Amino acid sequence: MTIYTSYYKGEIKGEAVSISLYPPKGWTGKHLPLFAPTPELLYWWKSSAKDAIAEQEYKRQFREILDSRQQLIGLWVEKQKNNPQDITLCCFEKNWGFLPSISGWRSSSTKILT
Question: For the segment 35-53, what is each residue's pLDDT rounded down to a tens digit?
């Protein structure tokens, strides 16, 4: 089983799973907000200048959020080892630079490809 990452309109392999805080309208697949920013951080980003300084701060805060969820993320990854079907984690971003913490997990039965 392999876990892929993509944006919603990108290539989907296996089952599609939304990891956005709010999936797109009409989404009927699974929703896993474990990898999403908090509502507060998302609101802050949307109201920011969206310049290099804001992006750096957003990434810093998002990494802190993901770091605080590492135990839950690890449990989720372990659970996927029993899933024979490939899945694709979907979000709105084409650039997965904001999601560095899951790409390092590798095992003989579960691979995460970004």
Answer: 999 999 999 999 999 999 9
